[in-house]
Amino acid sequence: MNKTKQMTTLAMCIALAVIFHTIENQIPIPSPIPGYHLGLANIVGLVVLYKFDDMRMMSVNLLRVLFASLLNGMIFSYVFWMSFSGVVCSTLISILLKKFSGLSCVGISVAASIAHCVGQILIAMVLYDQALMVSFLPYLLFMSVPTGVLTGSVTSLVLSRLK
Length: 163
Hints:
This protein is mostly helical. It is built from 6 helices and no strands.
């Protein structure tokens, strides 16, 4: 793929991830944790990881959080930092597991979902100065598995169609 086509494709991936991120914020999910989402935007990041490389995944995910927060008027708010910390943790775990484990796309997605929740809890503990935020972790981890399976399964389907 030449540089122009690659840059255009990655720009489209960022735009699609921002759209998923924004739409996802409008979908109410019955959950004991406020603000819980399915992680649909992570599908785009995983596709980029498998079709391009780890640095491009990191770029797409970080730019997605930055642009979506900017468009939603939440730039540098608590919501931004929660999303940012979660995406950094999930992206790093995805990259490491793809390089050093034999996990499938679904397995990596579940691990990334768990890492996202752990990252958010850690930053919430810092931002709100509340160690009790860790009490949300069991609920988040329980809900991370089905959402990780969903996003990983959709990613696998997308990757099979892109070949």
